[in-house]
Amino acid sequence: MEHSIRKISTIIVDVPIKRPHQFATEIVSTKSMLLVNVELANGLVGVGEGTTPGIWWNGESVETMKVVIDQYFSPLLEGKDPRYTEQILELMDIHVRANPFAKATVEMALYDAVGKVYEVPAYQLLGGLYQESIEVKWALATGDANGDIEEGKELIENNRYKDFKIKAGKYKTAEDAERAIQIANGLRGISSIGIDPNGRWDRLTAIRYMDRLNDADIDFLEQPLSPLDIEGASELSAMRKVPVMADEGLATVQDAMRLISAKAADIFSLKIHKSGGMRNTIKIAAIAEAAGIPCFGGTSLESSIGTSACLHAYGTIRNLQYGSELFGPQWLADDLVKNPLVCAEGKVQVPTGPGLGVELDEEKVEKYRRKSE
Ligand SMILES: [Mg+2]
């Protein structure tokens, strides 16, 4: 069969980032990616990129993805027809529980390959475009309130980004909230910020701060509480002060239904990796649409490869009213493709070439390949 999958292979790369990034639990200075190559019998090759914010985020890392793909998905999928996307997703779900980041990485490479088979961009295989470019919110993460305000002002002045998100969760809830209010006030009248504590805030302090966060015009509060605390999220949302966004707590279509029934989210943050791929992400957006919930295009901080996959999926969605945080390629100090994504005036363009529309730069892959593998 000319389109069947002949071989699946993986490589870990460590790409430097421009400045250290403060997450809730750690500071990072390089970003690790797992590249997946899917070679078809006809010689066409699809590329996928798997990366996670860190193993703290959902329990996966590039190393776990590599094992899952090499040991389990590769033998399972060799000889299969990559055009049967839904069957392949089902097969992966039956044979390997969870591990959505690994599944999404394989799916990405399959869409890239199938797009090349039909010579159409992946978005065409996903239902067609709704918009050609997507707004990007930049994450202010200098680790210091004044530094964040300064960076925000500079980016606005240079017409690069106009809306922002800040990372929180490293400090106690009250301290984090005070810093967020300080940054929001520092940017008042020219911009707005959302806050992402990555599930690290405590419920009671969050409730006490909702009025002041509202007064500071905070745009949204992303996953303030543990993803397991659905009741807490419902309580915060019911206060009608600051919209509550679900991120870590929203991965599967079942999570989407549960959050909607519990009225525990006002906005859905989508992420192709956490949901096991582009197709699942679009299904979640449809569930959100049915419930009148707007979406935000989340990122796992991918290079231009993974970011393209996000763009192909998000570009087909009509309820992406909160824009995106697809700034991965701008945040990294280097890229892995010959044709990096174009981001201008706070918007990033959906690539239009076949498949993901990006071309792997083999020299860069060799340069950043993890030598100790
Ligand atoms: Mg988040």
Automatic annotation (TrEMBL):
Q: Which domain of life is it from?
A: Bacteria
* A GO molecular-function annotation: manganese ion binding
Q: Which UniProt keywords apply?
A: Aromatic hydrocarbons catabolism, Isomerase, Manganese, Metal-binding
BP GO annotations: amino acid catabolic process
Q: In which pathway does it act?
A: Aromatic compound metabolism
Keyword Cell inner membrane annotated: no
- Name any cofactors this protein relies on: Mn(2+)
Query: Where in the numbering of this chain does the Mandelate racemase/muconate lactonizing enzyme C-terminal domain appear?
Result: 149-243
Q: Which InterPro entries match?
A: Chloromuconate_cycloisomerase, Enolase-like_C_sf, Enolase-like_N, Enolase_C-like, Mandel_Rmase/mucon_lact_enz_CS, Mandelate_racemase_C, Mandelate_racemase_N_dom
Question: Which Pfam families did the record assign?
Answer: MR_MLE_C (PF13378), MR_MLE_N (PF02746)
Decide whether keyword Isomerase is in the record: yes
Q: Which PROSITE patterns match?
A: MR_MLE_2 (PS00909)
The similarity annotation says:
Belongs to the mandelate racemase/muconate lactonizing enzyme family.
Protein name according to UniProt: Muconate cycloisomerase
The species this protein belongs to is Sporosarcina newyorkensis
